[in-house]
Amino acid sequence: MQAFIFDMDGVIIDSEPIHNKVVKEVLLENNIVVDDEEFNKLIGMTSTSVFSYFIDKHHLPYTPEEMTNNHMNFFKKYIVDHNLKPIDGICPLLEQLQKANIPLAIASSSPLNVIEFVVKTFNIDKYFKFLISGEDILHSKPAPDIYLKTAKKLQVNPKDCVVLEDSKNGSIAAKDAGMYCIGFANPNSGNQDLSRADIIIKQISDINITQLP
């Protein structure tokens, strides 16, 4: 292992229930009801891609950018108002990786300003060498593009990178990039198929960095 790459939503912050709630409320205002099964298939994709999906499917009178901006403004306010903290085990893991001199990055489907907001609010920005947003990449997860770009920025061969993911789309992206993937079975991320991951954990503290390839 020469680098460790984190997804953010559902891995660093337990945000999937918040995202789901906001999107469902917006759609409900337009008389659209989405069941969890359909929504869970979209986890790991960029917000713009998710909103584009619903706009196209239901012919909504908005742009993906308008819906994404409104969504993310609510999301940042929610983090502050509810004093959210990192998922249990994340801070100790960051400390262990830093002490082992492993370069770290975030490769998230969220917009860059939201990634920056989360890591600064949680006071963990000092750990990460790069913050990469899927909004700046042509193909969203499950395409491997974001992970290949992150490896290139880190100047590390993809096969020497370890990724921590909580979604089917994210784990597919990591594996198709040629990386070792740890699947985090976060119950708040829905019933995700993590079968492509190399190992599956139920809590972050289960990660032993000395046993990673």
TrEMBL record:
InterPro entries: Beta-PGM-like, HAD-like_sf, HAD-SF_hydro_IA, HAD_2, HAD_sf, PGP-like_dom2. Its cofactor is Mg(2+). Keywords: Carbohydrate metabolism, Hydrolase, Magnesium, Metal-binding. GO terms for molecular function: hydrolase activity. Belongs to the HAD-like hydrolase superfamily. CbbY/CbbZ/Gph/YieH family. PANTHER family: 6-PHOSPHOGLUCONATE PHOSPHATASE (PTHR46193), HEXITOL PHOSPHATASE B (PTHR46193:SF18). This is HAD hydrolase, family IA.
